[in-house]
Amino acid sequence: MTTTAYPHLLAPLDLGFTQLANRVLMGSMHTGLEEERGGFAKLAAFYQARAKGGVGLIVTGGVSPNLRGRIAPFGSELSHFWQANKHKQVTDAVHQYPTKICLQLLHTGRYAYHPFGVAPSKIKSPISPFTPKAMSVRQIKSTIKDYAYSAKLAAKAGYDGVEIMGSEGYLINQFACVRTNKRNDEWGGSIENRMRLAIETIKAVRAKVGENFIIIFRLSMLDLVEGGNSWEEVVTMAKAVEQAGATLINTGIGWHEARVPTIVTSVPRAAFTWVTEKMKKEVSIPLITTNRINTPEVAEEVLATGQADMVSMARPFLADADFVNKAAENKADEINTCIGCNQACLDHVFAQKRASCLVNPMACYETELVIEKAKQVKKLAVIGAGPAGLAFSVYAAERGHHVELFDKISEIGGQFNVAKQVPGKEEFFETLRYFNKQISLLDIKVYLNTEQSAEKLLAAGFDEVVLATGIKPRKLDIKGLEEGYTSNKVLTYLQVLRDKVEVGNKVAIIGAGGIGFDVATYLSEKSLTNDPEAWLKNWGVDKQYLKNGALLSKQDIPKHDPARHITLIQRKTTKVGKGLGKTSGWVHRANLVKQGVTMLAGASYKAITEKGLVIEVDGKEQLLEVDNIIICAGQESNRDLQQKLIDGGLPVHLIGGANVAAELDAKRAIRQAAELAVKI
Fold first, then answer.
1. Which residues pair with 118 in a beta bridge?
2. Which residue out of 6, 170, 522, 605 is catalytically annotated?
């Protein structure tokens, strides 16, 4: 028998009345299926795939214990016996494997996106348009009963336990902190009063469900907001949570309104496990740590060094349902790693769309995007080894098709090779590692440094051709642009990111979409991905925990001397960066502000001269005296081969940038690839 490289990760955890198969918790994620018509059957397939993949314990997306606590008007709720029936589909599906599943009970409080929200005090949240009503004592006591009844219904529905959400700035967390709790009764004031809702809720739930039922309490160990709790207050609460009857304590990091990134790609791996380790000295029940743990190596290190008793990973199980089994079989190099982009998961949920995953579009579509063996095996040519071409090749080969993949450059990856150069986007290396491994396992023939012609393809006997040839720059109409190219004053983003052309100290970037932000980041910022200590300090997080919320004073946050003078410009009059991801865009903007980057909106480009770029803003012309102008705007689909192939009678499919040349979009490209592969 092969010994595993991850003995701590795969060790069982004895909870006394029950045992978990390993130390892996699939953390809570709202998928949107909870509210879809017929969504629970799809949700059951989603969770079952992760249970089959070997995860020890699953926590569902947040479900409210009553109507006022719902996330949105039609949000998930479990407060009536008839609502429990549909949950049986989920628990029955999961329990076909040795995996436990807990329902997360989440009351949004002032984060409610509807006018019926309630909170400890009448204080509006910055992330909801609605002002909550302050709860009466009667409402508080009624809410505690609702939690307990919800937990009882969860037990009836077959759940092994519940997770009580007490972090991330939701209701229980709102009560616990003076930031949002201004009460002067027995539910406000001292920490003993402010944490009363949490403690009474745990006691009420335990009384309702008995001893042989898992209760996880999600404790906010780092609020990361002004008016958050001190370390002493967090410890006081943790000890009371243990005494009240919780089985496990899960780590919560940061409120949703915190101005510290906690989960995006640029956050170093396992950047917050130190706070769980700090808490291990204070309580004796098992502790779960979380945030940006995305490989079995990182998880094993966290457990082996005693920082926690379990690790929580949420998005990594969107990226790969078989994460645990692959680790157990010593096949970690076959794991499709979460890159922390949020583009198809959290950004979708905030837009009221179904969650999925950029690198795994099958996530939450287990019953709709299904890889099955093809009835008729075809010989397929794929032109372009970027995200779209790679994904299609892998999915089509899994179906049994003979795939040959061509690219004119010397490595696979396309635009991912550009993205991986950007500080904070190093996780893209993992996606390329995954695709390289799949190409090897599936025996996909790859021809690099090979430019194809229609004549060659028509003569090679292919049944169909997939063009994943991406985009090519569109000519911009700016006076002096061509002369600028010939003098090397004007550069394309590919020359900067891919070809490493030298760039001067004063730079103007034309185009403030995702590519423009990437170039500005590349030219201005030193990567802190591999230096968690420096990263935490840069974002104002105090590991010494000397102040409430673990925030540094402004004077203690390092100031940056900009490496370059950069101006990021767009034609649109909207806020620069408005089109970036909902959950990550603010981080990119804040990073560039820290680096002293100037952002200009509503500009028109008049001319490029020897001195620099002439623009017009608000009717006034101005000259930006710069060494280089970098073009990050204007592209069109590269479909040069399409018509000749069609004329030659060969079926042609367009995916990725070759299909739509708007902002480079790996999420759309990989999904298109999957959708084509399952039907070709």
1. 133
2. 170
